[in-house]
């Protein structure tokens, strides 16, 4: 099991930037893929981005492609989500999640076993 703690959320004006961090502890010696999801009020949790253990492969939701960048530093057991050109529709609670092993990057939240508590991102227009 991997324990995850997000940080870096806050209030930002439209067009601004934020960088979220996700610190992992526990079974961090095992390979695991990392994902970011978000959930806005009254909406279902949706996939944002994911990255492989090595960091060599990433994938993004169409709604954030070109604006958000996922990365990781395994030496620090930390994943990041750099968010640029933020829009009001990006307002949500952002969660990081871990999925064991190698292979394809899962887009479904059900395929991630471990989750952080979430961090609020609010974009004012």
Can you tell me about this structure?
The chain is mainly β and 125 residues long. The protein is built from no helices and eleven strands. It has strands at residues 2-7, 10-13, 18-26, 32-39, 46-51, 58-60, 68-73, 78-83, 92-100, 114-115, 119-124. The strands form two sheets. Strands 2, 4, 5, 6, 9, 10 and 11 form a seven-stranded mixed sheet that branches. Strands 1-3-8-7 form a four-stranded antiparallel sheet, with no helix packed on it. A hairpin with a 6-residue loop joins strand 4 and strand 5. The mean pLDDT is 95.
State which percent range the strand residues make up.
over 45%
Please summarize the sheet with the most strands. 7 strands, mixed
SS summary, helix count: 0
How far is the N terminus from the C terminus? 39 Å
Q: What is the arithmetic mean of pLDDT?
A: 95
What low-confidence regions span 5 or more consecutive residues with pLDDT below 50? none
Shape: globular
Helical content class: under 10%
Order of helices and strands: EEEEEEEEEEE
Structural class: mainly beta
